[in-house]
């Protein structure tokens, strides 16, 4: 069996527990890797071996029942994916699948009753080991439950695809195995109980005691667990609908989703042995595929690199933020106010040109707080505190004691320079001046200030509450204390921050604008909008180009495009057709179809490209632009561009962001003469 020298081994710790009313003790296995909840339990080869040994010892003790639980807050979050890149052959991948199946099956086949006491997060192989047990209880404090493998290019490979549909039915299983991973959702404990994943739900405070007592009741026959019969008549229809949805959204670009569908279909009538054998073969195929390697690379970026941004000054330089000022009271400014208020819980003050705008901004924040209370996502005590911390004023002197001031006004360089010139005279000398600009130069914005070293770019993505990326931009004179404070604030805001050099449009907007520029070159030349729009379907992007443009807003896209056209006229075209669309103000899509009125606006040439040609030209342009950005030092490494595209633009894991796709398709080398990433980092070693 392949070994992972870096495996943090989750040990299966066995102890004997006496439960009132039972003649024999209970064998309780606790999964624990020796760390707190910040490093969750997972199953690697050594961890599976430990569980195997614990089951053997438990069985030999002949207990009343065998139960598995986890360390505080964590049951188990699945396979140890750090070992996946070490798998160099399909045979090793098969061996991993077989090992997990063999160990987990001992719980399912046990003549002694087996229980899973799911006390915390249970994902992937963690939920699968619970599914193998005869009965399951779940704590109300369990943060998340699910089978998210499809999202990282894999499938539930240790029995989940066969056990779950035969436990809760095909509709629920399709939701957990396909729909939830592809929409980045998991189950809450109450949902797990309602679906039938859990047999009982207990409060977190005394979860283990209640679970032991409940299990004793089951063993003694005092409690009967009733599970509804699975409806097999609708099985094929559910999967047919699921396939239609997948084809519409992913266009076959995600092999793991298709494999999962096949396994769910097999679960209808196949024996468990045949179903799990098929799981092993499917898992091996996927582990040795590029999409899974790219997905695991992307997962690692989001889970590790995002939490340890590169190039950040020492955190000890960060200044304490006890009050935040926000210049502007429009929708973006109000969203920022709510975010700062919720995360920092310090006074936040809004200002704008007149009291009516200020009042509207404050009212928005108050209304959003009320909504959170109504949805039970915030208690009334916290809400009352936050209501007391938000305020607004047209008198800018209220900013005098603010430690962090951020502007969110119209994208106009002279306006932003004027704002900072005025506020520099009001705020204290050490206050940070942050700008939410999406494309303008931080250096130019600060050029005329007495203290340009305290100006920093703080670029959020809309919607602010949802998208996790924060581009933190260092101007030429931004000092380390300002940067350290910006990153400390970003962390408090629970954003994933990336350090970016002051360059036109920074990272996400620059990449997307180069993409949009190439799209409109094809449209301007004469390629129909429908052809351009569908050209990127084989990549499985989250949105087609026209839908993306509508989401961003043609006016915003055109403005950023103008900035980049001015900076790099040889690479960023100034499309007259995009300008016509902006001036007309018409929606690009009507009922998800291209607006025929927009088509009538266009003035185009007679060069009609195929979808393949459109895609090839756009990807070549992206490879060129990303190479230039890296050569310019816009970010430290290609990994940062991928992280930005995943977190800021929703690029899918199966692409690994963008550079792994450009590498494995050969486009990177064709255009730039070399790969972006070392071979094997995000694809199969060749």
Automatic annotation (TrEMBL):
Source organism, top-level taxon: Bacteria
Domain 3-hydroxyacyl-CoA dehydrogenase C-terminal: 506-585
Pathway: Lipid metabolism; butanoate metabolism; Lipid metabolism; fatty acid beta-oxidation
Pfam families in the record: 3HCDH, 3HCDH_N, ECH_1
Coiled coil residues, start to end: none
Molecular function in Gene Ontology: enoyl-CoA hydratase activity; long-chain (3S)-3-hydroxyacyl-CoA dehydrogenase (NAD+) activity; NAD+ binding
Assigned keywords, A-Z: Fatty acid metabolism, Lipid degradation, Lipid metabolism, Lyase, Multifunctional enzyme, NAD, Oxidoreductase
SUPFAM superfamilies: 6-phosphogluconate dehydrogenase C-terminal domain-like, ClpP/crotonase, NAD(P)-binding Rossmann-fold domains
Ranges where the 3-hydroxyacyl-CoA dehydrogenase NAD binding domain occurs: 323-502
InterPro entries: 3-OHacyl-CoA_DH_NAD-bd, 3HC_DH_C, 6-PGluconate_DH-like_C_sf, ClpP/crotonase-like_dom_sf, Enoyl-CoA_hydra/iso, FA_oxidation_alpha_subunit, NAD(P)-bd_dom_sf
Catalytic activity of the protein: a (3S)-3-hydroxyacyl-CoA + NAD(+) = a 3-oxoacyl-CoA + NADH + H(+)
Gene Ontology BP, a term: fatty acid beta-oxidation
Database matches in PANTHER family: TRIFUNCTIONAL ENZYME SUBUNIT ALPHA (PTHR43612), TRIFUNCTIONAL ENZYME SUBUNIT ALPHA, MITOCHONDRIAL (PTHR43612:SF3)
Similarity comment: family membership: In the central section; belongs to the 3-hydroxyacyl-CoA dehydrogenase family.
Name this protein carries in UniProt: 3-hydroxyacyl-CoA dehydrogenase
Organism: Actinoplanes teichomyceticus
Lineage: Bacteria, Bacillati, Actinomycetota, Actinomycetes, Micromonosporales
């Amino acid at each position: 069996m392949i070994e992972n020298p870096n495996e943090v081994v989750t040990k299966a710790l066995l102890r004997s527990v006496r439960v009132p009313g039972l003649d024999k003790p209970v064998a309780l296995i606790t999964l624990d890797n020796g760390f707190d909840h910040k490093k969750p339990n997972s199953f690697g080869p050594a961890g599976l071996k430990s569980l195997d040994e614990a089951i053997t010892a438990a069985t030999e003790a002949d207990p009343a029942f065998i139960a598995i639980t986890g360390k505080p807050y964590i049951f188990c979050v699945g396979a140890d994916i750090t070992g996946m890149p070490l798998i160099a052959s399909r045979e090793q991948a098969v061996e991993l699948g077989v090992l997990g199946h063999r160990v987990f099956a001992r719980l399912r086949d046990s003549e002694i009753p087996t229980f899973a006491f799911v006390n915390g997060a249970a994902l992937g192989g963690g939920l699968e080991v619970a599914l193998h047990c005869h009965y399951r209880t779940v704590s109300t404090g369990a943060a998340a439950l699910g089978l998210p493998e499809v999202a990282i290019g894999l499938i539930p490979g240790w029995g989940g695809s066969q056990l779950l549909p035969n436990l809760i039915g095909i509709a629920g299983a399709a939701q957990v195995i396909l729909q939830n991973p592809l929409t980045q959702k998991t189950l809450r404990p109450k949902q797990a109980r309602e679906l039938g994943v859990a047999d009982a739900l207990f409060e977190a405070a005394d979860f283990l005691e209640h679970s032991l007592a409940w299990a004793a009741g089951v063993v003694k026959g005092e409690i009967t667990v009733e599970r509804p019969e699975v409806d097999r008549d609708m099985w094929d229809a559910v999967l047919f609908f699921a396939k239609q949805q997948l084809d519409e959204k992913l266009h076959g670009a995600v092999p793991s989703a298709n494999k999962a569908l096949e396994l769910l279909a097999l679960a209808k009538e196949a024996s468990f042995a045949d179903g799990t054998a098929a799981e092993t073969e499917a898992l091996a195929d996927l582990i040795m595929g590029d999409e899974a390697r790219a997905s695991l690379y992307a997962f690692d970026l989001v889970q590790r690199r995002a939490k340890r941004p590169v190039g950040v000054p020492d955190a000890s330089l960060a200044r304490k933020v006890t009050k935040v000022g926000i210049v502007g009271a429009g929708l973006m400014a109000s969203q920022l106010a709510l975010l700062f208020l919720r995360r920092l819980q310090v006074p936040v003050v809004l200002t704008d040109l007149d009291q009516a705008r200020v009042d509207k901004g404050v009212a928005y924040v108050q209304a959003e707080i009320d909504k959170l209370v109504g949805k039970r996502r915030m208690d009334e005590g916290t809400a009352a505190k936050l209501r007391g911390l938000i305020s607004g004023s047209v008198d800018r002197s209220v900013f005098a004691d603010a430690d962090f001031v951020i502007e969110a006004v119209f994208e106009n360089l002279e306006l932003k320079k004027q704002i900072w010139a005025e506020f520099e005279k009001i705020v204290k000398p050490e206050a940070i001046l942050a700008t939410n600009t999406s494309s303008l130069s931080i250096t130019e914005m600060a050029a005329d200030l007495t203290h340009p070293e305290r100006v920093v770019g703080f670029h959020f993505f809309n919607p602010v509450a949802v998208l996790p990326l924060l581009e933190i931009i260092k101007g030429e004179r931004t000092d380390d204390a300002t940067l350290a404070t910006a990153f400390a604030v970003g962390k408090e805001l629970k954003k994933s921050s990336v350090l970016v050099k002051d360059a036109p449009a920074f990272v996400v907007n620059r990449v997307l604008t180069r993409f949009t520029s190439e799209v409109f070159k094809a449209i301007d030349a004469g390629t129909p909008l429908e052809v351009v729009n569908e050209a990127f379907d084989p990549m499985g992007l989250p949105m087609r180009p026209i839908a993306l443009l509508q989401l961003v807003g043609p006016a915003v896209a055109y403005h950023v495009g103008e900035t980049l056209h001015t900076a790099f006229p040889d690479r960023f075209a100034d499309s007259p057709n995009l300008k016509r669309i902006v001036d007309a103000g018409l929606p690009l899509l009507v009922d998800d179809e291209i607006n025929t009125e927009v088509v009538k606006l266009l003035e185009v040439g007679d060069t009609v490209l195929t979808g393949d040609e459109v895609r090839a030209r756009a990807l070549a342009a992206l490879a060129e632009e990303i190479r230039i950005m890296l050569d310019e030092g816009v970010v430290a490494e290609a990994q940062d561009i991928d992280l930005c595209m995943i977190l800021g633009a929703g690029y899918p894991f199966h692409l690994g962001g963008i550079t792994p796709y450009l590498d494995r398709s050969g486009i990177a080398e064709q255009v730039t003469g070399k790969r972006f990433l070392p071979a094997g980092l995000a694809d199969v070693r060749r």
